[in-house]
Specification:
The protein is an alpha/beta fold and 566 residues long. The protein has an eight-stranded mixed β-sheet. The protein is globular, with a radius of gyration of 24 Å. The relative contact order is 0.11.
C-alpha cells in the first residue's frame, strides 16, 4: 500500500503508545541518513581510500564515546555499545572487499554496512536489534567521508515533537528533555531502544505511526503516548481537552505516594528498573519500594576482559548504597551468543535468540557467574542491602536448582529466576519450588509465546502483552507460584501499563517493576481498585478474543477515576 502524503495525512492516526503522557507541539523531522553520491567513481588509490574509511569510523567511535562520558547509565550503555560497532574490524574488512571490487569510498562503506545489516537481520535476536545502530554508524561515517553534516536531529529552540523513521539510540540517548515534548517514529517496536529510553526519560512516545516521515516540519501535532493516537492540526478545543486531561492527571498523581496497595489493602510492591549507578541514584531518590530489575550487563559489555571481583564489587556497592534497606533484585549477566562478550565468545549459532544466552552462558562459563555472585555478596555485606539475585533464561527445574545452589554457596540468601521461557511458566510449580522468588520478563515471554521477534516492528501486534495467549501463560506461572507460595513479580514493560497492571495483580503478581516515570500512575490505578476487581478484570482480559478486545474490555470496566486521565 502506498504511503500517504503529508497532504492526505491529517486528523488522527494511531500507532503504538510506548511511553505514557500527552504532548502538543510543532514537528521537527530528523534528517534522513547520508547516502553515497550516485555514480561515485572507483577509488583511484584504494589504500589511501581505506585509510580515510578507517579514520571516518574511528571518528564516529570517538564521538560516541565522548557522548557516553556525559550520558546517564542507560544511555551510556547504548552509546558505548554503538561505539564498539564503529570499531568492528569486520566493517573495515568488508569495505576493503568492496574497494577492491571497484567501488568508491562512500559506496564501499555503504555496501559494507548493508552486508552486515543483512547478516544481523538473519541472525535475529540482539543482532537484529542492532541494525538501526549499525546503519546510524554507517551514515555518520559517510558524513565524515563526504564532509557533510552528520544525520540526526536539526537544531531547534521551541519545544517540539521529534519525528523520524526510527531514532538511532545515539540520538535518543542525547535528547534535550527541555525541548523534546514527545517522540514519534514510523518504525520501531514496543521494546526498541527508542521506547525504553523515552520511558526512562519520561517523554511521551509513539512508534509504528503510518506516514510519520511525510508529516511536514512545523506541522502542529498532539501526541498521546498511552493510546498511540497522533492528531495533526488539532483543533483548539482538542488541545484544550488535552491540557485539561494532563492537568487532571497531574493533580491525581500528586496524592499518589507510599507503598503500592489496592483499594482494599492488598500490597503490591512498586519497584524500578535500573541499568547502572546513575540510574540507581536517580531512582532511589523517588517514591519507589526498591529495584525489581538491576541489569548488570553494563559492567561487562564494554570490557575487553572479564571484570575482576573487586571491580564488580565497587560498582555494586555504588548501586546498592542509595537504596538503604529497600530490596534490590539483581539479574545476573544476560549475555551470550546474541550479546557477544569479547572474553566469552562461544562461537556462532544458527539462532542466537534460542541459543546459549543468559543462564546457559553461565553454565558454559561458571567462572563468570561465580565472580559476579562473589562480588554481589561482598557488596551486600558492605552495604547491608537486601540483595536478591535472579537468573535470566531459565527453562527447567534442574537449571533453577543449579543456579539456586550457586547463589547460596556464594553467601547470598535469596535466589530467583526470570520466567521468560514458556516452558518455565508451564512447569512453574516445579521450577519455583527450587527458588525463593520469580519475576516475569514479559518482553521475552511475549516473543517466545507468539514466535515473533521482539525487534521486528511489523510484528508489534503479536508482541502486545495484552495478547490473551500471553496472559494465559502468565496465569500459568502465577498458578505455580501460588502452589509453592513463591512471590512472583513482573519486570517487563507490561508492569508500567496502569490498566495491564490491574490485570497482572488479578492474575496473582505481587510486585511490579518499571521505568520510574511510570510508578505514579500505576500506584494510582491500584489505589482505585480492590483485589476482587483486579481478578475480575483479569478474567475478562483472558476471555477476550484479541489483544484489542482485552484492552477495550478492561478500559470499559475499570473505574472512571483512572480511565478519564489515560
Amino acid at each position: 500500500m502506498a504511503e500517504p502524503s503529508s497532504a492526505t495525512l491529517s486528523g488522527a492516526r494511531v500507532g503504538i503508545g510506548v511511553s505514557p503522557g500527552t504532548a502538543f507541539g510543532p514537528v521537527v523531522q530528523v534528517a534522513p541518513p547520508v547516502r553515497p553520491p550516485a555514480g561515485e567513481p572507483a577509488a583511484a588509490d584504494p589504500e589511501a581510500a581505506l585509510v580515510r574509511i578507517k579514520a571516518a569510523f574511528e571518528g564516529v567511535a570517538q564521538d560516541l564515546t565522548a557522548r557516553a562520558a556525559t550520558a546517564d547509565d542507560t544511555a551510556q550503555q547504548i552509546l558505548t555499545a554503538t561505539a564498539l560497532i564503529a570499531r568492528d574490524k569486520g566493517l573495515i574488512k568488508a569495505a576493503t572487499k568492496h574497494l577492491s571490487a571497484g567501488k568508491g569510498p562512500a559506496a564501499a562503506v555503504d555496501a559494507a554496512v548493508e552486508d552486515y545489516a543483512a547478516q544481523f537481520t538473519a541472525l535475529g535476536g540482539y543482532f537484529a536489534e542492532r541494525v538501526t545502530d549499525l546503519r546510524d554508524v554507517g551514515s555518520r561515517a559517510l558524513a565524515r567521508l563526504l564532509g557533510v553534516p552528520a544525520p540526526g536531529i536539526p537544531p531547534f529552540s521551541v519545544p517540539s515533537v521529534v519525528v523520524a523513521e526510527d531514532l538511532a539510540p545515539a540520538e535518543t540517548a542525547t535528547l534535550d528533555r527541555s525541548l523534546v515534548v514527545a517522540i514519534v517514529t514510523q518504525a520501531g517496536g514496543r521494546t526498541s531502544h527508542t521506547a525504553i529510553l523515552a520511558a526512562q526519560m519520561g517523554i511521551p512516545a509513539v512508534v509504528q505511526l503510518p506516514g510519520a516521515t511525510r508529516i511536514a516540519p512545523g506541522t502542529p501535532i498532539a501526541v498521546d503516548g498511552d493510546t498511540g493516537e497522533v492528531t495533526l492540526n488539532p483543533t483548539a478545543q482538542y488541545v484544550e481537552d488535552l491540557v485539561v486531561r494532563r492537568r487532571r492527571r497531574t493533580a491525581a498523581l500528586v496524592g499518589s505516594h507510599g507503598p503500592g496497595v489496592t483499594r482494599d489493602g492488598h500490597p503490591v510492591a512498586l519497584l524500578a528498573n535500573i541499568g547502572g549507578v546513575e540510574d540507581a541514584v536517580q531512582a532511589a531518590a523517588l517514591d519507589v519500594e526498591g529495584v525489581g530489575l538491576f541489569r548488570t550487563e553494563f559492567v561487562f559489555l564494554s570490557s575487553e576482559r572479564a571484570p575482576t571481583v573487586a571491580e564488580q564489587a565497587e560498582i555494586y556497592r555504588q548501586v546498592l548504597t542509595p537504596f538503604g534497606r529497600r530490596r534490590v533484585v539483581v539479574r545476573t549477566l544476560d549475555a551470550g551468543a546474541d550479546k557477544p562478550l569479547a572474553f566469552a565468545n562461544l562461537g556462532p549459532e544458527e539462532n542466537p535468540a534460542l541459543g546459549r544466552r543468559g543462564l546457559r552462558l553461565s553454565a558454559e562459563r561458571p567462572d563468570l557467574l561465580d565472580s559476579q555472585l562473589e562480588a554481589l555478596a561482598i557488596a551486600a555485606r558492605d552495604t547491608g542491602a537486601d540483595v536478591r539475585v535472579m537468573a535470566p533464561m531459565v527453562a527447567t527445574a534442574e537449571e533453577a536448582a543449579w543456579f539456586s545452589r550457586r547463589v547460596k554457596e556464594n553467601g547470598l540468601p535469596k535466589s530467583g529466576v526470570m520466567i521468560e521461557v514458556p516452558g518455565a511458566a508451564l512447569r512453574a510449580e516445579h521450577v519455583l519450588a527450587e527458588v525463593d522468588f520469580a519475576s516475569l520478563g514479559t518482553n521475552d515471554l511475549a516473543q517466545y509465546t507468539m514466535a515473533a521477534d521482539r525487534m521486528q516492528g511489523e510484528l508489534s501486534d503479536l508482541l502486545d502483552p495484552w495478547q490473551p495467549a500471553v496472559l494465559d501463560v502468565i496465569a500459568l506461572a502465577c498458578r505455580g507460584a501460588a502452589v509453592t507460595g513463591t512471590p512472583i513479580g513482573v519486570c517487563g514493560e507490561a508492569g508500567g501499563d496502569p490498566l495491564l497492571a490491574l490485570v497482572l495483580v488479578g492474575l496473582g503478581v505481587s510486585s511490579l517493576s518499571m521505568a520510574p516515570s511510570k510508578v505514579g500512575i500505576v500506584r494510582f490505578a491500584l489505589s482505585l481498585h480492590s483485589l476482587p476487581e483486579c481478578q475480575r478484570l483479569a478474567s475478562l482480559a483472558r476471555d477476550a478474543r484479541t489483544a484489542r478486545d482485552a484492552l477495550d474490555v478492561v478500559r470499559a470496566e475499570a473505574r472512571t477515576g483512572l480511565t478519564e486521565i489515560l
